[in-house]
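Technical appendix A lists one of the benchmark inputs used to test multi-chain prediction within the project. The record comprises two sequence entries:
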Amino acid sequence: MNFNKRYSDYKEIFENELKSRIETINSSNQTLKDAMVYSLTVGGKRIRPVIMLAVAEVLCVDFNKVLPFAVALECIHTYSLIHDDLPAMDNDDLRRGKPTNHKVFGEAMAILAGDALLNYAYEIVLRSITDNNSLSAGRLLALYAGAFGMVGGQALDILSENELKSEATLYKIHENKTGRLLLASTLIPSCLCGNEGFDKLSQYGKNLGLLFQVTDDILDVTSSVDKLGKTINKDANENKLTFVTLYGLDGAKKYAKEYYEKAKLAICDFEENEFLIGLLDFIIGRDH
Amino acid sequence: MNFNKRYSDYKEIFENELKSRIETINSSNQTLKDAMVYSLTVGGKRIRPVIMLAVAEVLCVDFNKVLPFAVALECIHTYSLIHDDLPAMDNDDLRRGKPTNHKVFGEAMAILAGDALLNYAYEIVLRSITDNNSLSAGRLLALYAGAFGMVGGQALDILSENELKSEATLYKIHENKTGRLLLASTLIPSCLCGNEGFDKLSQYGKNLGLLFQVTDDILDVTSSVDKLGKTINKDANENKLTFVTLYGLDGAKKYAKEYYEKAKLAICDFEENEFLIGLLDFIIGRDH
């Protein structure tokens, strides 16, 4: 298996779907749509959609069933980045090497573009519900994106800047802030075929999410602005709770290895698990 | 019919439903939940839920079917107020006579509380889908809340501060920013019973929405801070496009009367239309 070829094939399938969906965004205002599309198309690894398509292939789920959810999930991921970058939140000027949404469209429009993308995600989900399986996929996405999941993790992340510097808090932030949407990426294809492989994919997704985050924390101190496309050393400078600030660089690398092994173990008896293992190598080995 | 009694009965039914739903909000973080609940329970006329219950009663739709959508719609309305009040948007310190969300919880948490409420609205919607009627109600809500509807109107409102001072723009802002959620309140009960009375309720809801907004514009210049519970004369001071800034106070009052009559006419042959007409009197006659 050529991992890079297959990754870029999945990515291309997703990009084509996204492009055709974007054309149908129904906005009463062109500037708002421009702001939405800017962040949706500014680049990025599309790792969540790629995971979804890869898991769908393992479970033999029709790509046409999973693609609307992949677009919805990427819209949710994108809105969260727009809001995260706002001056009142992380105050970032750069994202994926380009000016952040509020730098281009202004703060007010960036807030609204985020809101509109979140809404649009559910427009897509609701239009894609045709049976109990797709309904349960939609419910899982909503649960993992909101106060219980991603937004809850973002809130805890903010609170942790000044307090709550414990291991349990670190784990809870990462489990929710980055982890829940990555977990949703592995579980939605399972929902779409009546929960086949759900428990194993749940273990795989949880550990993949933690691996992703610890790698992010490591890159924040070891990568360069050029490679990362965003400000480096931000976490340490802002007194954020990360694997590196809590365990040091070597400790963080030890955790990365542990999550990698656990994720791999979870899917060891899947017949077609080569690409899913490749994704773990991709995450642990990435330099941006 | 005692309008006030019936209004407060509907309101109480809604408040009880909201209270029990709030208890089930699943947040991984207590501060985030506190911020969500603060704005959800800070008061307000609950006009959208009241409209939904009133229309449901006219159409003989089971309140248990409509109440989850009423809570979802109120969550969407509430999140939009939280984001609207932010310094980067309208920069308001007061809402319903109380400090705005970001004044109490800080800007970052207010942004996240808004995001979480929007998400939670769709959590409720997705949990309440049991058939094609409830699915079509969910789809209508998503369409009217997003870039095509409310968020699109908010975006146009921001753009209109410096340009686009035309009658067509004013109408488009109001149709979307305030109008779409009020329209959704009249149409969701119809969706829930296979679109009974849809066209008439559509006319009623559109004109009720415009009536609501023109009254709002009038109150901005004629009411007091005490009564309104928020800053007055804000629109004029901020160079906003309103019915009053475009047509003057008398012109705005003429439009209010016109929308009132059109809304009334739309439902003239409904058997039980007394409360729906009462709602128009309530809106045109309110002093806050």
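Chain B has a mean pLDDT of 93. Chain B touches chain A through 54 residues (CB under 8 Å). Comparable benchmark entries are summarised in Table A2.
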